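Example is below:
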Amino acid sequence: MFYALLVAVNILINAVSGVNTEPCAQTYPESPVVQLDSNFTAYCVLNESCMYTDASKLFWKIRNKKVPETQYTVLNKTVSSVTIVPSSLSDDLLTCNHLKHGEIETTLHGIFLTLGYPPDKPENLTCIVYNGEKLTCYWNPGRPTHLITNYTLRHEWASSSVIADCIPEGVNNSCSFYAPTFQFHIDTILWVEAKNALGTTKSDALRRDAANLVKPNPPEIKSLISTVQLPRALKIEWKNPMERDPSMTMKYIIRYRTNSSKEWEEVPPHDTASHRTSFTLQDLLPYTEYVVSLRCMRSNGQGYWSDWSKEAWAITPEDKPTKGPELWRRIGNPDESGNRSLRLLWKELDPMYANGKITLYTASLRRRTNEPYALAVVNVTSYDFVIPKYSFIASVIANNSIGASPPSVLAIPSGKKTEVQPAEIDVKAFPKDGKLWVEWTPLNKSIDGYVIEWCIKSEQTACEIEWQREPSTSSGAFLRGNIFPFKCYLIKVYPLYYDGRESSRSVEAYLQQGAPTTGPSVRTKKVEKYKAVLVWNPVPLDEQNGFIRNYTLTFSPSHGNVTTVVIDSSNTEYTLSSLKGDTLYNIHMTAYTENGKKDGPVYTFTTQRFANGEVEAIVVSCCIGFLILLLVGAFICFRKRDLIKKHIWPNVPDPSKSNIAQWSPHTPSRHEFNPKSSPFQDGSVTNVSVVEISEEKKSYTEQDIKSIDPLKKNTSEGFSSGIGGSSCMSSPQLSVSDGDEAESAQTTSSTVQYSTVIISGYRDQQPTAVVPHVFSRSESTQPLLESEERPDDQQALERDDHSVVSNQYFKQNCNENGTGRLQTVPQEKQPPDAVCLQNGLQDMNAGQSICSEEQSVGSQVDHVIGEIKSYLPQIARRGGYMPQ
């Protein structure tokens, strides 16, 4: 349609532009029918009005696509041809075109191609005469042609040239002739012709006698009769479908089945090969509904079988039951007198054995001596007896309107044998063919059969027992009844011994297993630092939906790897070990069956921070350690009690007992040494100060001090700085002892006092000669007065005209631990008019630095009148301080 519209638009444009509407060219053949997948050639002929162009400038297009120029052929200036091979089932537009003015594409003419196939030869021609009234032939027309194709069925008599045609209506594979167009007992020739635009073909001829092509109608069953005289037979009567033509004799096939079965049984063909209208079915089951059907064909075997007739139903008459009902029992525990409850159970007879409607059952008990004990006639399938501890024989008979069945017999054991013992068989149960199959190993002993008991095992409902009886030759059976998937069945198999012995084997089975409905819930039973004991309840039986094959326990710390452990399904407790202390763990369990799994809820727990006994061990260890430490401390304190007393409660001298307190400037000088009084003249001591001397200079200091003070008996262990003008402000050192070791404990490391000694006379007097130093010490440990810390007298002396240059310089230095040391100045560096205050000090190593930080102990005095300040150690004596 698109291409046709394109051509029409082209023509319309030419007409509007004033161009002659007569086609400039003509394409041949017009509206052709072309066979698919075969060559087709089209021609484009130019008219006189198109002489402005020639055939060499023409080009062809199909489906609006240009055909390659290799497929063109220019016959002359006015004729161009193209050869194509169509392969599409849709109709194609083939156009002849040229470029007007060298630029505008113009369609000169076009044709539509109708594509298809020629008809195939009809195959498998078959003709049937339906019940002698209609002759219908069928054939296979072959592949579709995609074109209008006409089929004609023709026939002619072999003795005549008259031909009759049959044209199908709506279909191309069958056609029918109706009587009397055809005749029996005369050969007829039949064939089929097919024709379309691409060709004509016909089938092979079929030569047949129409009588041998007959397919009769199905027979019509008139009656299906049952009589009491023939309880196992049914008589069938029917109508012959070809009654109007006596020459058409028939043979039959009769089939039948019980109404409860889907399997048909057929009467042997030779019993129904002769022409007839009735037949009697024999050896049927009594009191059973049967379904009957039949069909027929010509007795000579020519032609076709008819369709099956409509089915007919009938019930055979009753007969005596041929088998007693299946019998079983329930035996209760004996009471105090030995009596037991006995319930006899039996099943309704299968119709194939009942042979009628069962109206009554007769249940009886007898002793093994054939002595009758009890008898009951009921219309139900169970009856209760109370029996003593003896053994019995129970029997049940089924009765219908015709008679009674053979008795079903069961041995009842005595009261001493009611306990069920394990049977000597192995029992298995598994699904098979969509049913539950129970299998066991048959016994070689003589037994009366087997009884299979089963029930749905549940924790919520009672086990309603069903049972069935199997013959002694059986080794397996399908459970009869409604068996449900995902339910656990408890199955027991009882061999029936003739002596009444009772034994059984049990097994559990599922018809179909699935995933559990719920998973196990795990919880902790005991949690420690490195392990935890987990417990869980098994999945409830009603929610297992199959046998629990195993559990998987999945656990992981809050920040760690996941670990999975497989646990046997029989376990309900598991111990996790190698855990981390004080760690949160996530755990859950999964239950697995053969066909699925189910996860339980997630449970969390935290391990203990300390292991069992760890806290107690720490506490006990700390207590023992503390006790040991306490004992050691007490022992040390006891051994060092004097040292502790000296540091904590030192002896503090009483300043009121100091000699310095008795000194006065008006006191005359004392040249003789008296321990109880000052050895100096009145006014010779003007200031007291403290200098600390370290332990490192003990050796030479003691000698030097002794050389200075001949009255000094012993040298102190060290010098200490203390109160009264010490520039180092360090801690006190040990003082000098008198040599008595017993009194050394009473000496103190407190501040050792030093006094400033006046060498010359009182005040403005000039010393006439160098005199030995005489020291006067104070027993007071009190700090010096501010006037003693600052030498105001020196400032006054500096203003005096008299100048005295000291001959000795003492420098005090402070080390890291604050210890002050004395340092002498070499002789060559002293002022020329300096007076040596102490000859013994000249023996010290000149220039040796005792303190690292050079600091003058006393200010260098340029103009000192008759007064020189010096720092020398005080000498301790027993019981106090010896005055200098």
Remarks:
- Residues 614-639 form the longest helix (26 residues).
- Residues 1-20, 667-884 have pLDDT under 50 and may be disordered.
- The two ends are 149 Å apart (CA to CA).
- DSSP finds eight helices and 54 strands in the chain.
